Amino acid sequence: MSEPFLIGDSMTGGYGKGPDILHDCTIAVNPGEIAVIVGPNGAGKSTAMKAVFGMLNVRSGAVRLGGEDITTLSPQERVIKGMGFVPQTSNIFTSMTVEENLEMGAFIRTDDFSDTMDQVYHLFPILKDKRHQAAGELSGGQRQQVAVGRALMTKPKVLMLDEPTAGVSPIVMDELFDRIIEVSRTGLPILMVEQNAKQALEIADKGYVLVQGANAYTGTGQELLADPEVRKSFLGG
Ligand SMILES: Nc1ncnc2c1ncn2[C@@H]1O[C@H](COP(=O)(O)OP(=O)(O)OP(=O)(O)O)[C@@H](O)[C@H]1O
Fold first, then answer.
1. How far apart are the CA of 46 and the centre of ligand 1, in A?
2. pLDDT at 235
3. For a substitution probing ligand 1, which of 12, 20, 21 has the most ligand atoms within 8 Å of its CB?
4. Is 13 in the pocket of ligand 1 (CB under 6 A)?
5. What is the pLDDT of residues 17-72, one digit of tens each?
6. What integer pLDDT is reported at residue 40 of this predicted model?
7. What is the position in ligand 1's atom list of the atom closest to the CA of 43?
8. How far, in whole angstroms, is CA 138 from its chain's centroid?
9. Is 1-82+191-237 a domain of CATH 3.40.50.2000?
10. Tens of pLDDT, residues 209-231
């Protein structure tokens, strides 16, 4: 097996001087794939994403992107390297317009980003309609579209989403997943944390079930959905 495009490899670490939250945890994603991290509340799913993005120090293990060791880089430096990260909360500027949010997303770019903005508006037509409205006036699902669009504006090499469907209705969740699949089909690797384990595994090429900061089960989405142990413990039977 060749090296995955993005890998958090055997990560162990926690917040500041606190106890370890992650224990030898590995997550990875390849171009054209959707990789999904699921698991119970407090399992360390968001922490694993933050570790890959450089928001906490890993005491051991490594993060590699395109074969390059980026373990010691800051989150800002990782953005320059091509990581697009959408955090779970505070992921948009609510007092700015939709379009200003997207422009902010392009802050690292010095080239013309109008093509990318057209792509984002093509992907999320409602954002074009509402481009002059304050992002804080949008619905939950629309705000998540702004957040994903903002990350896409950097033209990332990998997209990381922490619970993109948090707080939205099942219908809006399905719509967001459809858009995420559409983005994935462009070849962009997508790594995401999801509370809606069953629905997320249905669209996952790769699934990671984390328990207490460690890998409990890993497989394709279909394998995990079919695994009796995974079903019983994590998918409600
Ligand atoms: N900023 C922080 N500082 C210290 N500890 C934290 C911090 N954020 C999370 N933790 C701790 O890390 C552990 C894992 O939390 P994390 O948010 O990664 O879990 P999760 O699997 O994403 O949970 P959920 O599904 O509830 O969002 C928890 O015990 C939590 O209290």
1. 7
2. 86
3. 21
4. no
5. 899 999 999 999 999 999 999 999 999 999 999 999 999 989 999 999 999 999 99
6. 94
7. 21
8. 21
9. no
10. 999 999 999 999 999 999 999 99
Question: Which of 69, 67, 54, 15 minimizes the C-alpha distance to 160?
Answer: 54
Cβ atoms 38, 31 nearer than 8 A:
no
- Which of 15-19, 88-92, 117-121 ranks highest by mean pLDDT? 117-121
Assess whether the C-beta atom of 44 lies below 6 angstroms from ligand 1. yes
What does the chain look like in DSSP terms, one character per residue? -PPPSEEEEEEEEESTTS-EEEEEEEEEE-TT-EEEEE-STTSSHHHHHHHHHTSS--SEEEEEETTEE-TT--HHHHHHHTEEEE-SSS-S-TTSBHHHHHHHHTTT--S--HHHHHHHHHH-HHHHHTTTSBGGGS-HHHHHHHHHHHHHTT--SEEEEESTTTT--HHHHHHHHHHHHHHHHTT--EEEE-S-HHHHHHT-SEEEEEETTEEEEEE-HHHHHH-HHHHHHHS--
What digits encode the pLDDT tens for the residues 124-155? Answer: 999 999 999 999 999 999 999 999 999 999 99
State if residue 18 touches ligand 1 by the CB under 6 angstroms criterion: yes
**Which residue's C-alpha comes closest to atom 30 of ligand 1?**
42
Q: What is the pLDDT of residue 226?
A: 96
